[in-house]
Input
Amino acid sequence: MLVQATLDGDQAAFGSLVDQYEKKLYNAAYRITGSREDAMDATQAAFVKAYEKLHTFDFAHRFFSWIYRIALNEALSMVRRRRQVTDLDSRIPDSTASPEKTASGKETGRLIQEVLMNIKPDHRVVVVLRYFEGLSYFEMGEVLGIPTKTVKSRLFSARQELRTALLDRGVSR
Amino acid sequence: MNAERLDELLWELVDGEISSEDHTILREYLVGRPEAEERRREFVALATKLGSQERVEPPAELRERIDAALDAMPPPAAEAPPVVVRMPPPTAPTWPMRASYLAAGLLLGVGLTFLIVTGSGQDLDQSKLYGTVQLPLEDAVSVDLEADAGTLVFDRSGSRRTLDLDLRWDGVVEMRLDSQSGVIQLETVDHVGGTALAASTEGSRLILTMRGPAGLRLVTDVGAEDASLLVTITAEDEELGSVRLFSGEISNVQ
Output
């Protein structure tokens, strides 16, 4: 296992873990922070923290849950810090920097990200994990350290909030 | 079926997480209810819209930054080998020792009475109640937990094992004890501060979940004088999830 190999002194093994999770963590962090720069900082901080605390990793759990949880907490910390100093609207990625620019339906993509940035951070996290990262309810529970039942109810409220906000902006079907 | 329950089931269906039982109920409900079917289509459309958003490619600079940060750090601490706490076999106390135990017991009794009478409550000095008075004193072994989370003191008398935990961790901790003799019986569990959330035995395993910080005394009987005990303590950390604070074996030196 790569974690054990790293602890046994094989630093390249941790590089393989970075290869495996860098893109996923960056994407999740981007959707939560709404900023490429913050997503980079959160992803880097997550890997550094995981490396530093690797000896405390509990092998009874899965590494993917552990590293996701660290990254989500880093991203949420950045959102909290930013919220104190920045007007929320400026966190919405502008269309010139957004990947949706080149995709069809780019306006919908921009609106979805805009709406995401305006729902509660807890709700944003479950939407990102389910629909952007494709995690099951059980996996989400593992990552967030909450029971599956709580995942379902949080996701339910999040989707209601998201759906209403999208309808308000004229995005329905 | 009310509107909220319908929405719950529809979302579970759209997410592919619905149970076969609920699926049957929902399928039957949807028959002849075009408005519910329309709602299902709406949910599918939203889920598809969300799920079809493009992934953002991380810039190459990110990997460079991660590698540079890791290169500047020392290698992660190798996993600490399980702590093996070995204790000499118990010896029958001599009369002078018994006298000293009696004196220690009296002193402890006076100390406890003083604390109770003064009603110091939260100001109780936990170190006086836990982890300091161990009989016989020379057999008690103390180890520090990971992450500066506290101290664990082991003691035993015959088949009885006493664990005194001075826990500084602010949060939920699970202590798991596995007796190698195949037998474990919880005799007492007392705590000062914190909350003992649950204690249960299952065959030769005992699991205690508690919330710290706290002082805890746990007395168990492992059924045999020379039986060793495997102890694992894990904590739930908000950022790191499950963190191992201690993993060790307590066995007698023959």
